[in-house]
Amino acid sequence: MTVNDYDVIVIGAGAGGLFTAARLAHRGYRTLVVERLDKVGGRASTTDVDGFKVNDGAIVIEVGGITEQTFDEVGATFDIREPQPPILYRIAGKDVDVTRGGWGLLLGKLTRQGAKLAKGIGAARHDSGLPEDELSTADWVRKYTKNEGVHGIFRNMCASVFAVGSEELPARVFLTYFTRKSAFKRFGFHPEGTIGVWRALAEAFIGHGGVLELSTEVTRINVADGAVTGVTLVRDGDERTVTAPVVVSDIGPFATVGLAGEDAFDEDYVSLVNKRNRPCAMLTINFAAQEPLLEAPGMLSFSSSRRLAYIANFTETCPEMAPAGWHLYVGTSVPEPAIGDFDEAAEIELLRADLRETIPGFDDKARILSTVITRDGWPPQRAVAGFDLPHTTDITGLWNVGDAVKEYANGGTTACAETAKLVVDEIVGQFPK
């Protein structure tokens, strides 16, 4: 018998990789996680900027769903603080709390057609009420109203959850998410920044015997006779081969194919991966001030903006994220188009213009900590929801997890937790301990 170094090797310590690894180690699988960066979290991590805990990507974590369930199962600390209310919507200059009124209250504030539109959303709870796949969210809304405020709300919801505009997201995806998925009804922030979530998960993983190697890059996924045999990796210039019958990749199918080589896969699979390699893009401005700039305790979204989808107020619930006496915020937008080429300078200026309009005296009061564009190889979402790839491959022992292989109509770190559970269940079925 061949004795492998590990039962499973996980490439990437992002959300999908750590969810997967923690579940596997908890079930007794000898698991190695290899991460090229010097910290966990990947595109949902946190960077220290002069004492401010600035999130690199994902800023909120869902409470009460598959993410929290995973933490409970593997024994990881889930220290998420929920703002109350979690989100307000700025409509005609007023910040509206729709926590209890839902869609009816939100849309009723914007248009007399609100009741019809809310009824259309309700009808989507049944398959017969879902529109055809080709119809965009924006076109679906146009069937009910031309009201710009309504379109602004839907555009910014698409941007906030799926990192695309309403013209780019299928209405079927949007409606399925908001009528059948958790739809982020409860969420919050971590006092260490989002990296705190992944540190806790990594700690639980290591506690179950898992091995985490940071600052280590996988240079090849090794395949023989149609099955995975392990990986080749490099650390501090030293190359070595690590063997395992299972490899789980959290770097996206496109990069995974590159590591294993196109010849290792079926031509149809490679063609599909290349066709759907359409990452989204997002712009963020992280800023701080020595006086409160926002009354919303969590997130503030908008019915009217050039690009600004939301502003998040971190220090109202997590003052640890900033030096004493400071308040920390982020403003986020998606460009037009969110997929493909766009004018970066123009899009940043549109986001800045929205922030100036939303926060009086922004230029004088706010200290800009960073302006970040996530796109191409480091995107907010590797695939547009509704156009995801399968998490399985035609190589025995090779799976993908993460936001390029999401289940239909899901998004963000919640989708990563969902794919991790599915993949782990399949590994347990095919490679039992």
Automatic annotation (TrEMBL):
<feature type="domain" description="Amine oxidase">
    <location>
        <begin position="16"/>
        <end position="427"/>
    </location>
</feature>
<protein>
    <submittedName>
        <fullName>NAD(P)-binding protein</fullName>
    </submittedName>
</protein>
<dbReference type="Pfam" id="PF01593">
    <property type="entry name" value="Amino_oxidase"/>
</dbReference>
<dbReference type="InterPro" id="IPR036188">
    <property type="entry name" value="FAD/NAD-bd_sf"/>
</dbReference>
<dbReference type="InterPro" id="IPR002937">
    <property type="entry name" value="Amino_oxidase"/>
</dbReference>
